[in-house]
Amino acid sequence: MNLVTVGIGGLEVTGDRSAVLITHGLGSCIAVIAYDPFRKVGGMLHFQLPTSTLSPERARESPGTFADTGIPMLFERMYALGCRKPDIIVKAAGGGNFHGDSGTFDIGKRNHTMMRKIFWKAQVLVRAEDVGGSRSRTARLFVDSGNVTIQSGSEVAPL
Amino acid sequence: MSAEQGQGREGKMGLQMLVVDDSPVTRKMVRRAIGLCGLEVAEVHEAGNGAEALTQLASHRVDLVLADINMPVMNGVELVERMARDPGLAAIPVVIVATPMSEERVERLLDTGARAYLAKPFRPEALRDVVVQILGPKGAVHV
Amino acid sequence: MSEPTSELLSNVLGEVLQDAAFVFAEPAEDEITFEGEVLRSTIAFESVRGGALRLVTPTRVAAEIAANMLGIDPSDPEAESQGRAAVSEILNVIGGAFITRYFGTQVPSQLGLPVTDLVATPLPVARRTCAAAMRLESGEPVLLELDLEEGPAA
To answer: How many cross-chain Cβ pairs, B to C, lie less than 8 Å apart?
Structure first.
């Protein structure tokens, strides 16, 4: 098993069937998990913020930080490995709210909204998601099977 | 699933849908969401109110109706009731896509014959789940 | 039943704009003003008390809302042509959200049909119970007003 860790603002795409993509500490951040079951290619993005508009330089240095730069890049990297959009299964986890925040301060919800906006425009449906609440999450994608698990505390559940 | 199911009177293969809403924006959104359901859809008809919907239903064999409630001329409640009373239309599943409302009204719609209720603003994933549950992954109507 | 507040309207408007149109809005910290022509949409309702809601948006904001709802670019000509319809539908959703939030889901309620017009500023003064003045991330203003009829005498 090849454990590939995706950090905050990170993005990994691989066709290595022994790989397990993993990202920890999903608070208000969201993990977007993409998988092509025909080509056995998996990708994972861990984005922190919804839009890069006010931070173009940071977006250039770390496009995975933002939904509007990270999600397109995730798909471009999948396409580069031969994947086609209709074949890609998308799942998501995270977007939590830990301080009872609302409005501007509910970054988790804003991240989720921006993700939904991008996918609606791209005509991509999310197959499954585990978002919101106030649990910190860890997401895993097993590239050989396409299985996704979400862990909160000691509880691990399939997504 | 009969050989006729999934074929409109025009003989087209694939499902025939009818979207009923007085908002052209919502009709386009529902149409777009239907296109993402993974079903073989031959045609999506549109109507701006319940009366127009009945006219469409008289001309096309429709496999699923998605209807708003609040519409001019004839609202969605009356449309559901009229369809339920018509032997030729009673078997067509109706999904209500409407703004949140009283529980009593939702129950009345479901009792009258609507198959499901989706609150606006609807998630395309939720619409997909409801439509696939009713029509099945390959478009067979599930009773 | 307590009287409705600007905070309630802000919450409803902010949530509907985000959930239905993917637009982020915050309560305005300063007074908002509209310039040129704006879209003003009105929807009546009946419940324990009757009344009306009014939504005012610049046309550019309406086009952005339409674009997001339709999943197209804001520069697409259809975004501008569907702006009025988009604002009408947003107010329709706001109406339902307000009714269920303020009156609850256990009472029969009726929502009218939204009527949206292009009007020149300054806007005529209209009776209102309370209002929510908000700004989008772009800084553009949006206004939601509630005109609630008096309740039955005690």
So the answer is: 65
